[in-house]
Write a structure and sequence with these properties.
With 234 residues, the chain is of the alpha+beta class. It contains 2 helices and 13 strands. It has helices spanning 2-29, 189-197; strands at residues 32-36, 44-46, 56-59, 62-65, 74-76, 83-91, 96-103, 118-122, 160-167, 172-177, 180-185, 214-217, 224-233. Strands 1, 3, 4, 6, 9, 10, 11 and 13 form an 8-stranded antiparallel beta sheet that branches. The chain has a 5-stranded antiparallel beta sheet with strand order 2-5-12-7-8, with no helix packed on it. Strand 9 and strand 10 (172-177) form a beta hairpin. The N and C termini lie far apart (46 Å).
């Protein structure tokens, strides 16, 4: 009898611990995680390096790429799979940048865009990429694959609020720019593969293959600012 009571006691403790752990995981999953609050680069590093570059600085609560030369792409130190990413960006006149997800570090791949799909950051008024039709390179576009439904981008030097949602469980991706849903797309499967085949990424062995990867911010040679960066796991 004592043995049975002891076994039941241990089993009760096990169930309690399991329930507490599940509640903790659910809480973590539903909470916003700050990736940049204007005070440090602790959550970021240069792609294929261990620390941040002096090309990135902090200015009035934002991070700014002020010495752009195409070699200072930065990524989060942590990896993410299903999430909502919220941030604000502004771009210099005629400027170009982008936000990546699913970035996989590989010494044989010297650019984050070789693995990570990109949501475009652009000066729509001045950059020629925004004038081409279809507008696959316009601000908010899934770069070279899905164009925005409308142009809601603010002028160069003004802040744009961007929300990127990636969910492999539901096979849905989307982009909101300044509160307007402008892009929707699948994130894997036949429909995704078809989009890749019709883009510049056709034949890129590693592009878009990693469900879990780093978030990245692009150095495209132009000055760009980012602030209030946070992420919520789904």
């Amino acid at each position: 009898m004592k043995t049975l009571i002891y076994i039941l006691f241990i089993f009760t403790i096990f169930l309690s611990c399991k329930e507490n752990n599940n509640n903790t995981q659910a809480s973590i999953q539903g909470e916003w995680e700050t990736l940049f609050d204007g005070s440090s680069f602790d959550n970021w590093k240069v792609y294929l390096k261990e620390d941040i570059s002096s090309a990135w600085a902090m200015e009035d609560g934002a991070m700014v790429l002020d010495k752009a030369d195409h070699s200072n792409n930065i990524i989060t130190k942590s990896k993410y799979t299903n999430f909502i990413l919220s941030l604000e960006w502004k771009i210099a006149e005629g400027g170009n940048s982008g936000v990546f997800w699913g970035v996989h570090e590989d010494e044989n791949l010297n650019q984050a865009y070789q693995t990570g799909p990109e949501i475009q950051v652009l000066d729509n008024e001045r950059h020629p990429d925004a004038k081409a039709n279809p507008k696959y390179h316009q601000a908010g576009a899934l770069y070279d694959m899905v164009q925005p439904s409308q142009d809601v981008c603010k002028s160069a030097g003004e802040w744009n609020a961007c929300e990127i949602k990636i969910n492999h469980k539901t096979n849905q991706g989307s982009v909101k720019l300044n509160g307007t849903l402008i892009v929707k797309f699948p994130v894997h499967g036949q429909a995704w593969d078809a989009m890749v085949l019709n883009s510049k990424f056709k034949g890129w062995e590693h592009f878009g293959k990693y469900y879990t990867g780093h978030i990245g911010l692009q150095d495209h040679g132009d000055k760009v600012w980012y602030r209030n960066i946070k992420i919520k796991k789904l």
